[in-house]
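job 3f2a | input accepted
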Amino acid sequence: MPLLADLVAALDSGTLRMVDLSQPLGPDTPVIGLPPIFASSPGVSMEVISHYDEKGPAWYWNTIHMGEHTGTHFDAPVHWVTGKDFPDNRCDTIPPRRFVGPACVIDVTADVAKNEDFLLMPEHLEAWEQRHGKIPRGAWVLLCTGWSTRTDPVKFLNVKEDGAHSPGFHKSTSELLAKDRDVLGVGVETVGTDAGQAGTFDPPFPNHTTMHGNGKFGLASLCNLDQLPPTGAVVIAAPLKIVNGSGSPLRVLAIVPG
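job 3f2a | predicted structure (258 res):
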């Protein structure tokens, strides 16, 4: 089809380009911590099966072990109790068309530099829409915070005596996006889609509660959001087709004007 041929030609010529929004995934990848009363997700571990040796003279491969929600990852609705009863709510049953959508990038890097617990409020969203237009139905809303520049895992997780501290969405903003704007989901640079202190909010973890309770998705531990325009990019975020999967590490790609 001419349209698809034009897409490939535009990528080859640089008229369009690909931006990788994914962090490297390996044993050093930071993993979210939970209070001791809850089961925690393991970090990434890898073991060599064979490496051009007596176990396999012509091939190299590994076993990998990790939680579904590790590194740059996808949150399916079934991940949260509020989304457990939706049809097609798991990684293997979500229609693939829902993994692709326009990106709306909201840059709050300056706000987060002043306040690491910054929450995106409805007024921030509305001010963004006054400049860039209303967020369309079926969009990925990506919160650009600069957090991915924290390459030290300790600074990235930012856990203090009273828990983790990182930016996120206010409950009312999550409700506005999920219900009124009918987005695909939200994406963040932090380890999870809720703010670091969200366990103390009412309800706890309101972005998870709201997004997944409305059948929406989450993307966490993104990077390179500063390379995307506020509008005009298309994001492809397809999780592994894990049977009954609540989430999955993934390679998030954006197509942007060259």
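job 3f2a | The CA atoms of residues 109 and 146 lie 5 Å apart.
job 3f2a | closed
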